[in-house]
Design brief:
- The chain has about 210 residues and is α/β, with parallel strands linked by helices.
- The chain has one domain: Rossmann fold (3-Layer(aba) Sandwich).
- The chain has seven helices and 14 strands.
- The strands form three sheets. Strands 2-1-3-4-14-13-12-9 form an eight-stranded mixed β-sheet.
- The longest helix is centred in the C-terminal third of the chain and has 11 residues.
- The two termini are about 20 Å apart.
Length: about 210
């Protein structure tokens, strides 16, 4: 039987992620147990809050090396996507950048406010695919998703889709079996549900 694990990353959006998955007919396992995570067919890393706090939580649980070594499809959501990158400049005054999981190359930088645009970037926005992926199968050319974030991931070779809020940033990323969505698919109506459904399809189909 296929199993889906949602990692207990200390985020505040866990219940909405769990409900969205159950609406797709999936009964996820919410856990911080490394053995359970390693044995799952698919893994979701959710997150809301600050990168430093989230990484400290994962280190305290002994999950950093566990996540880095996963071979099955992994989906990071919002802060969970940001944690896949090398580091984040989201820190307290005078402190160094936060070392993240180091799976996807790049550093998270704060979004700069511009005329008529506020930070945090909060609300609905469209994305634009930069390359084909089975994770995006069945979505329109410019699907709408719901964003809540102040830091942005750079656009690079691993970018699947971009979004623009003053600056253009990575909205969806893929590096090998690791995927990430800067937005909240669990709060993004039919387009978000489709992306989660695509992630829940056959393991080998996504990784090809």
């Amino acid at each position: 039987m296929t199993t889906l694990v949602v990692i207990d990353s200390g985020g505040a959006n866990i219940s909405s992620v769990m409900h969205a998955l159950r609406r797709l007919g999936v009964e996820p396992v919410f856990t911080r147990d490394a053995k359970t995570i390693r044995s799952a067919d698919r893994v979701i890393l959710p997150g809301v809050g600050a990168a430093g706090t989230a990484m400290e939580h994962l280190r305290e649980l002994g999950l950093v090396e566990c996540i880095q070594a996963l071979q099955q499809p992994v989906l990071g959501i919002c802060l969970g996507m940001q944690l896949l990158f090398d580091r984040s400049t989201e820190n307290h005054a005078g402190e160094e950048d936060v070392d993240c999981l180091g799976i996807v190359p790049g550093t998270l930088e704060k979004l700069e406010p511009s005329a008529g645009l506020r930070v945090p970037h909060m609300g609905w926005n469209t994305t634009t695919a930069t390359r084909a992926s089975k994770l995006l199968r069945g979505l329109p050319e410019h699907p709408w998703f719901y964003f809540v974030h102040s830091y942005r991931a750079p656009v690079g070779a691993n970018t699947l889709a971009t979004c623009t809020h003053g600056e253009t940033f990575t909205a969806i990323v893929q590096k090998d079996n690791f995927y990430g969505a800067q937005f909240h698919p669990e709060r993004s109506a039919s387009h978000g549900a489709k992306l989660l459904s695509n992630f829940m399809e056959e393991t080998t189909a996504l990784c090809n």
